[in-house]
Amino acid sequence: MAPSKEEKKFILEVIEMYHGFPELWKVKSKEYSDREKKEAAYDTLLLKYKEWYTEATKDDLKKKLNAMRTSFRRELKKLNDSQKSGAGADDVYEPSLWFFDALLFLRDQETPAPS
C-alpha cells in the first residue's frame, strides 16, 4: 500500500534527519566507524521515527533506511545506465521513486570505487 501524503511528508523529515547524521551513511567520515556515535544517532532518529510508527524498534528503523537506500541505488543505476547509453535527452530515465531527490546526498556513497 502506498504511503499517504502525511506519511510521505513524515518519511521525508526522517530522511532529512538521517542526512544530518553522516556517521550513519558517509563511509569516508571518521565518525562512520565510531559505534557509540552511530548508536546515539540511531537512538535520536528512532525517537523521530516513533512519532509515526509508535511500535518501531531500532531494527525496524535500520531495515527501513536500508530498504530506501536499496531502492535509491536501483533507481540511480537505471538513471546512470540510461545516461551512459547515449540516449537522447528525451530518453534519459526519469526516476519514479518518490523519495529519490531526498536521498541524492547518498549519490557519492553509492558509486563503486574504481578497481
TrEMBL record:
Database matches in InterPro entries: MADF-dom (IPR006578)
Domain named MADF: residues: 13-111
Domain of life according to the entry: Eukaryota
Pfam families according to UniProt: MADF_DNA_bdg
Name of the featured protein: MADF domain-containing protein
The organism of origin for this protein: Plakobranchus ocellatus
Organismal lineage: Eukaryota, Metazoa, Spiralia, Lophotrochozoa, Mollusca
